[in-house]
Design a protein that fits this description.
Elements (H helix, E strand, L loop, with lengths): L1 H4 L14 H11 L5 H20 L10 H5 L21 H30 L6 H11 L25 E2 L6 E2 L5 E4 H8 L13 H10 L10 E4 L1 H18 L3 H31 L7 H26 L12 H21 L9 H53 L2 H13 L22 H18 L3 H27 L1
Antiparallel strand pairs: 1-2, 3-4
This protein binds zinc ion (3 copies).
């Protein structure tokens, strides 16, 4: 026996822990900070050894309940950097990934166990030999000769310490390592597997009838299903999940309420803001009643967020026996802080609505303003239209005059004249003795005569180098020219 028990000795403190589970537990609690490599090595060794024992009988790896508990996949924990209050970050994907990696394998194993449990619990055969045959069709049993010692406690099997098989995975254990699942409990665990129309839930009376109508079980222990430690853990986890589904913790319920209120407020708030803005501008696209209704609903939602988040922050803090853990309390407070920040950003900035008389005044003002604007616009358009008409008329007169002049003038002169007009207009360099062609000017225009005279004087002053006189004459000339331009345009629009 000593040779076998070596396997359960702690390689670090050389303490005999008696079973694999105890050794594993001892390691995880006592030597967590110590050599991780040794720990993993030991864990791997045991699961491999167990696989090898069972594989001899054609049991494949997935049928071994312990593999889920001994093959932990290590993940980096999410990094929780300090963050601003009220920040939102979705960790769902990360959590899902970590969880999926862990539960995939577990789900496959636990489903296999549950399907077998379902068949066992609903098998009406109680005659020992036949039932045993049926049990072995569900899962192959490990051969007795292959297992001289109980894999769980390490004790040697003999005439008094007999081998027993787990009905769910087929592995071997001794009497004291056997665990039992009652039919009733089994039924509870598997009822969700069965679709309601396919199978009626077994009741105690069903069980009584089947017992009396077929061969009676030899002892009452047969009304229980024997299973190993690993399979038992799988079933308890199943039970835990079912319980969780039925009665969610209060914190979860409150948080769901908080989330749904926040979601509803987030949906309603932009609609309301649009309405309030429009009404405050005196527009008539929305009804004041409707906006007031939205405002009331929003305030109710904000109240709910306030009350529920407050409740979450103090949840279980009065409970002397089961106070929330430090982490949980920190989360509860974080939820409250986030809600508080949310309310400050949303409730306190909620736009107010005008009263009915105020709204009527706003709408009246807006209508008047709108009318004024329309009138101004109409006037502007009218002005533009008239301007355009006048411009066209001038253009027309101009080209008419040009045409008549062209037809009178000799061809050679016509070209040079029109070139001068188009390119330079009235300039100081133009010939002072030859007034430029224009449909509106006459040869006897006194302004033109004056201009011609001033130009002549400028030429003379330049020749005599009288600079100051030239400057003063130039000023006179430009005044005369602009006056001439003004008169010409007045005549053009007359
Ligand atoms: Zn130790
Ligand atoms: Zn088992
Ligand atoms: Zn045992």
């Amino acid at each position: 026996m000593a040779t076998v028990k070596e396997g359960f000795l702690c390689p670090i403190c050389v303490q005999d822990l008696g079973s694999f589970h105890k050794l594993q537990n001892h390691f995880e609690t006592k030597h967590t900070a110590e050599d991780k490599a040794i720990f993993d090595q030991v864990k791997g060794l045991f699961s491999k050894a167990k696989v090898r024992w069972l594989k001899k009988d054609g049991v494949n790896e997935n049928d071994i309940g312990s593999s889920s508990s001994s093959n932990h996949i290590l993940h980096d924990a999410p990094v929780w950097d300090p963050q601003e209050i009220g920040q939102m970050h979705n960790h769902m994907e990360k959590f899902k990934k970590i969880r999926d990696d862990r539960i995939d394998r577990f789900v496959i194993e636990s489903n296999k166990v549950l399907i077998r449990l379902d068949k066992l619990a609903h098998c009406d055969e109680f005659e020992a030999t036949k039932r045993k045959e049926f049990e072995q069709t569900l899962v192959p049993w490990v051969r007795d000769n292959d297992v001289p010692y109980c894999p769980t406690c390490g004790d040697r099997f003999n005439v008094t310490r007999r081998r027993h098989h787990c009905r769910l995975c087929g592995s071997i254990m001794c009497t004291k390592c056997s665990l039992f699942i009652s039919f009733q409990f089994a039924d509870e665990l598997v009822q969700t597997l069965r679709k309601p129309p396919a199978g009626r839930r077994r009741t105690q009376s069903d069980l009584n009838i089947s017992q009396s109508s077929t061969s009676k079980p030899q002892d009452t222990s047969e009304l229980y299903i024997r299973c190993c430690h690993d399979c038992y853990i799988v079933l308890m986890k199943r039970k835990e999940r079912l319980d969780q589904k039925e009665n969610q913790p209060l914190l979860v319920l409150l948080y769901e309420k908080l989330r749904s209120a926040t979601d509803a407020a987030n949906e309603l708030s932009p609609l309301y803001e649009k309405m309030a803005e429009s009404l405050n501008r005196g527009e008539e696209s929305y009804h004041l009643d409707k906006a007031n209704d939205y405002r009331f609903k929003l305030i109710k939602l904000y109240e709910t967020i306030d009350v529920v988040s407050k409740k979450i922050s103090v949840l279980d803090t009065e409970d002397q026996d089961h106070p929330p853990s430090a982490t949980l309390l920190r989360m509860q407070n974080a939820i409250r802080s986030a809600s508080h920040a949310y309310l400050q950003n949303n409730m306190l900035t909620l736009q107010s609505l005008p009263s009915l008389p105020k709204l009527e005044m706003l709408q009246k003002n807006r209508r008047q303003e709108e009318e004024r604007r329309m009138r101004r616009q109409r006037e502007e358009l009218e002005r533009e239209r008239m301007e355009e008409e006048r411009r066209r008329e001038v253009e027309r007169l101009r080209s008419e005059a040009e045409n008549s002049r062209v037809s009178q003038a000799p061809p050679a002169l016509q070209k040079s004249r029109s070139g001068v007009i188009l390119k330079e207009g009235w300039g100081a360099e133009s010939n002072p003795f030859q007034p430029q062609g224009n449909p509106f000017e006459s040869e006897s225009d006194p302004l033109l005569e004056q201009i011609a005279y001033v130009r002549q004087m400028i030429v003379q002053a330049k020749q005599a180098n009288r600079t100051e006189e030239v400057q003063s004459l130039n000023r006179n000339l430009s005044e005369l020219e602009s006056e001439f331009q003004r008169q010409r345009s007045v005549r053009a629009f007359a």
